[in-house]
Amino acid sequence: MRYIVRDIEKELSKAVRHFPAVILTGPRRAGKTTLLRHMFPRAAYVLMEDPDVIARVRSDPNTFLDELQTPAILDEVQNVPEVFNYVRTRIDRNPRGFGKWLLTGSQEASLMKGVTESMAGRAAVFQLLPFSVRESPKVTVLRGGFPEVLARPTGANTWFRSYVQTYLERDVRAISSIRDLATFHRFLSLLASRCGQVLNKTDLAAPLGVSVPTLSEWINILEITGQIILVPPFYENFGKRLIKSPKLYFTDSGLLSHVLGIDSEKTLNHSVFLGPIFEGFVASEIVKGQTHAGKAKALYFFRDQQGLEVDFVLPLGERKLALLEAKASRTPVPDMGKPLDRLARSIKNYTTTGYVVCRSVGEGRNFRALCPGVRTITVEELPTVSN
Fold first, then answer.
1. Which of 202, 204, 247, 260 is the most buried (most CB within 10 A)?
2. Does residue 365 register a pLDDT over 70?
């Protein structure tokens, strides 16, 4: 598979001109190493998962770093978090040595702890998620955006199965004291079946026989390692009583489909989970757009206790909001836009635009005559984030 340019490259290029270190986090196998080695082909490269490398760094970190030519890529640096202190010392000796240290990590919890304590003000931090539809036309609802799945789609099921096993055995156990991986496996399946729903921890914990604090820890692990997205409610006061819990989505729709046992387009199209999977796909594409532009995640949903619900509320800056409904249908109808119109009429301090996001729109574009404040678009046409 030829190299595919990533949207985040522009922001990374800026960062190396203004910061001594750049830290790239994100899920395993999202393409962090490939990206950095392509952008900085002359940089020295060290994989900090190699047992010999880890032993050398821990036994004599100063000599290890002194012998390293810069710029240098330190890959999976969370395995040796103590190296941050020594990198910081070198940065402080030469604070204008921009772009010398390029660090990657998959476990954001331990990685960010090291950044907070040792690299504050010295490093620009970015997150790389799997490919978006903007980056590759091969990204689909069924297969998602992991590079290796897009390169070898016929082996997708085997790849996802291996990914889950590796993720459970390495990242999850490295972060948490999880011992019963079978229960955690069931937790993943249960979580997948609730994709797109408001998070109810008590409802999830009960069938698993675990406590709510344990469940909260597991959810936190999935979020900080980039496997799930929690979308909070939009809290602006519209004179309505609002839901307070977040909605939950998987970052990669291909992984979600795998966990749910969906392995073909036919199975997907007939699945009761098609709607939630597509809704999560839309959420992920929005978050990818924000994250890869170097911006903070800013995505919300709206639901009040009178029954009005809108899938996503997306701030666009300057008191502008995009209101979005995600519909897996390929035949949009005007009724799909009614919740958007109702919510727009209740918002007084923002300029709003409504979008019904479909897998395809076809003749559905003509429904704007019946629902004037709403457009039908595809995922590729999602509004650009400018917040």
1. 247
2. no
Domain ranges of the chain: 9-127
- pLDDT(312) > 60: yes
Among 210, 218, 280, smallest CA distance to 248 is for 280
Q: How far apart are CA 122 and CA 18, in angstroms?
A: 9
User: 330 vs 110, 312, 357, 363, CA distance in Å?
Assistant: 43, 19, 10, 10
CB-based contacts of 268: which residues, under 8 Å, 6+ apart?
141, 142, 257, 262, 274, 277
Write down the mean pLDDT value for the chain: 90
8 A C-beta contact, residue 126 and residue 8: yes
Q: What is the reported pLDDT for 294?
A: 92
Residue 61 contacts residue 32 (beta carbons within 8 Å): no
Q: Which residue has the higher pLDDT, 308 or 366?
A: 308
Strand order through the sheet with 44-47: 44-47, 72-75, 101-105, 21-25, 123-127
Token output for 245? 């819990």
109 HSE (CA, 13 A, CB side) = 15
pLDDT 10s digits, 148-189: 999 999 999 999 999 998 887 777 777 776 777 788 889 999
The CA distances from residue 232 to 36, 128, 198, 304, 351, in Å, are: 32, 21, 9, 13, 21
- Determine how many CB atoms are found less than 10 A away from the CB of residue 265: 12
- Contact between 91 and 102 under an 8 Å Cβ cutoff? The reply is no
CA distance 164 to 162: 5
pTM for the whole thing? Answer: 0.93
Radius of gyration of the chain (CA): 22
Neighbours of 342 (CB within 10 A): 13
Distance of CA 326 to the CA centre of its chain: 18
Burial of 384 (0-12, 13-18, 19+ CB in 10 A): exposed
The type of residue at 239 is G
Count of beta carbons in the 10 Å neighbourhood of residue 140: 21
CATH of domain 9-127: 3.40.50.300
Q: 29 pLDDT exceeds 90? A: yes
Distance CA 43, CA 4 (A): 20
